[in-house]
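We close this part of the discussion by returning to an individual protein. Part of our work consisted of pairing the sequence of a single chain with a tokenised description of its backbone. The amino acid sequence and the backbone structure tokens for this protein are reproduced below.
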Amino acid sequence: MLLSPELASSASLRVLHLGGYWRGENDMVRNMMLGLRAAGVEVFEYCTDDHLEALDTEGRDYARGTNGPVWLRYDHLGPIIEQLDPHLVICNATGLAFRPADAERIRRRRCLLGIALSDPDVFEPTTRHIAGTFDRYLTNAPDCVGRYAAIGVAVGVLPLATNTAFFRPVPPRPELACEVLVLGRAHPDRVEPVRALVERFDVHVYGEDWERHGVTSRGFIFGNDSLAALSSARMTVAFFRSPSGHAQVKVALFNFAATGVLVVTNRFPEVEPYFRYGEEIVGFDSTAELLALVRHYLDHPAEAAAISAAGRARVLAEHTWPHVWPRVLAGLSQPLPSGAPWPMPVS
């Protein structure tokens, strides 16, 4: 069932949020939950990483939804749902879903929302199998909307945002100072440009698998340490491809911009509703252009500061989870024409 319009905009709305936070304080799922709470909603938090006994992967290794659905055991969660009596139950990422019969039982009295944060990579093994069990489903990948609609899913695109209560400027640390910061795993599209950056600039790289490609990684960095790293760098480069090579808008753009660092990223049309290239973030189309832009903004710190300040201001004004969630909740009270996607504007 859907929410009533009155309830969707009411502080009396009760929500049970189900999701895992394997990246700790940095995790997108956690920050979405906190943003929903900051929007004035009563949120009951259920971190699935703390309750693995409530998960059923049908004998597969638990790979957080990348290799198949992660079914939520109703015998564990049904009593919690009945006790808390939420109006809305959210299954946020990691392939989480209730089995169809259990989902139907929940939907008789409550609204059930599913969210995918790793489409299109997980569409085939996971999300196409579970999306139809929800009243509404949100995907991070606009390219997947038609695929969901073709199988009868009431689907929309999740507007991306950040939690500025966590992602914010902090004092820099001398040991973390660098010209360019790279945070993330060594995906194939990143190796050649990062090698070129390392050869020419003072670059700090954090993440997995870089040593295989001759790039020294400083390991992993999380929480307040990651904020200090961003605040200590002259700029950070955020690459736009998923592990399987799909171009997508990354939540890192919003998280990083919120800290006040200059964000340099691949130029991609789907980013343009969120940020203006050359005014709020910096865009590049090739490694040669990336190197030239890094040199330019190192040599012109006032220009870099103006762009990073404008990027942070844009995030604060439009792209925070407390701004996004009320639009999502309002959409949960509106019926959709048959076969039509769920309209979800960026701002």
